[in-house]
Amino acid sequence: MSKVGVVFKVYADEGKLEEVAGEVKKLEPQDMRTEELAFGIKILKVLFVFDDSKTGSSNIEEKLKSMEGVSQVDVEEETLV
Q1: Block means of pLDDT (10 residues each) for the chain, length 81 residues?
Q2: pTM confidence score
């Protein structure tokens, strides 16, 4: 059993960042921060740490993508912890 850490960039539809952040919190991430990209565009950077025998990053990514108000999800970094 290995622990995996994955940082996702979550892009929200315009004006939906706070709503999306509330929904993401329900997935119990290890850490979540708002980051400004440019020209007032903000994204969420979300860290999940999990046991790779129980779930995978693709499962979490699909849950994030299926949330209302989410326009895009990218994996920024994935590593063993």
Answers
A1: 93 96 97 93 96 88 97 96 88
A2: 0.92
- The residues pairing with 38 across neighbouring beta strands, listed in sequence order, are 41
What CATH number has the domain bearing residue 66? Answer: 3.30.70.60
User: With contact defined as beta carbons under 8 Å apart, do 78 and 19 qualify?
Assistant: no
- Which of 73, 74, 52, 43 has the alpha carbon at shortest distance from 5? 52
Q: Taking a C-beta distance cutoff of 8 angstroms, is the pair 78, 3 a contact?
A: no
Total number of domains constituting the chain: 1
Give the domain extent around 68.
Answer: 3-80
- Residue found under tokens 């299926």: 66
